Amino acid sequence: MIILIIFSAVFVLLLLYGFLSHLHLVTTHYEIDSDKIKKDMRIVLLSDLHCAEHGKNNSKLIQKIDQEKPDAVFVAGDLTNKHLDTQDIKVQKVLLLLKNLSQKYPVFYSDGNHEIRMDDPGEYRKAAKKAGVMYPENETVIYNCFSVYGLTLPKVGYYKKHLLDESIFDNIYADEPEGNDDKFHILLAHEPRYFEKYVDTRADLILSGHLHGGIMRLPFVGGVIASGFQFFPKYDAGIFEKNGKSMVVSRGLGSHTLKFRFFNPPEVVVIDLKHKQ
Predict the structure, then answer these.
(1) Strands 41-46 and 72-75
(2) What is the pTM of this model?
């Protein structure tokens, strides 16, 4: 009986810890060098907020971002949740966050699997653009030394990968004007598990999320379970490199379905882009 009580108490404490971890927002820094970066720049990566709120109207999240003094903000999808519309109060708060950020910084946004399953994805994109956000949907946006492509995968790209028409990867940057090889190519791609495909494009830096850091993280192991209940995802969080290309995967800012984060606090990702001589 004593063992059962101790076990139950530990279990309850773990659940409480996992739930309260949502309140502990952290900042993670990375550095990437490239001769395509004309001058040193700092960008912030956000993903997987899932309508969570860090402080009233996300004041704590905005404060974290402001403290880093970024030159631009990139959103790799899933700020909202599926089956919602733009009139929902939770979505309104996400749009307010986007408006507040876009008044200070250029903001680039690309779909996640939840945006494409909203009641009216087109209406949401329209509202985000009205809030001041650049929202490329399978197209390129040129901004200063950046060439930004926002990849919108169809639903099968997340849930039935074997049915995905992989020509979608061949079209990345296909609309880009000629003579932009000197641009630093950033690919906003919510799903990191196509990393091998992304590195075959013109992308220099891929920004992803989706897997929530594996929900639970263990020392020397990393993420334990990904969205879709896949164990030990390869591209769970952090920075990955191949063929001179880099992918940064955010652990995200919120959660859905499983409302727990174990040893895996929500994060604001800061990436310093350094000019390489």
Answers:
(1) parallel
(2) 0.91
